[in-house]
Design goal:
The protein is an alpha/beta fold. It has a single domain, classed as 3-Layer(aba) Sandwich (Rossmann fold), CATH 3.40.50. The protein is 31% helix and 21% strand. Strands 7-4-3-8-9-10 form a 6-stranded mixed beta sheet, sandwiched between helices. It has a two-stranded antiparallel ribbon with strand order 1-2. Helix 5 (130-141) runs parallel beside helix 6 (159-167).
Amino acid sequence: MVFFSSWCCSFLRKNAQVDAGIYLLHWRSKLVVSDVDGTITKSDVLGQFMPWIGRDWSQAGVTPLFSAIKDNGYKLIFLSSRAITQSSSTRKFLTDLEQNGVKLPDGPIVISPDGIFPSLYREVVRRLPQEFKIACLQEIRSLFPRDCNPFYAGFGNRDTDVITYLEVGIPKDRIFTINPKGELIASTAVNVKCYLSLHKLVNEMFPGICE
């Protein structure tokens, strides 16, 4: 992983700093994709605004669960339909989020390249956030060998997230949907009711792997 900054001129600011990161993954890496709003946060809209006023609006148990998944050898990717103008605030939220002394694992944060109004139009008016997400994940998959699907599991909060993950080949029994009450829905024989209960079964659902 390499972080870098680039300085450029813009219409509104003489000098603007753009921060980004480059992640190098092994071709055998197994990726776990997570939506942000409503999945890491409790809801789509309030999840974007509550951190601004110092309120914790995160789903209980999300950081210990994702940290345990990472410790078992998986790579986390955070995928959001938020606009590109929200990249800094999104990165800061994910980096700063901490529960019981445990933070989210580091991983690529992929958000929409569109501005805030096109993003809102796609998300709120057309209700097709999966258009961006499917295209984005397909682009990531194209970086890996054709006979290798790097996507192991997916976390989301909407039917559109399920559509997205199925479209890129994630098995239905490894797609987890959570609601604002923190109740987890999974098409699996294993009984998991929330992130905390899934954490107890992390070694069964996400068995350790070695690169």
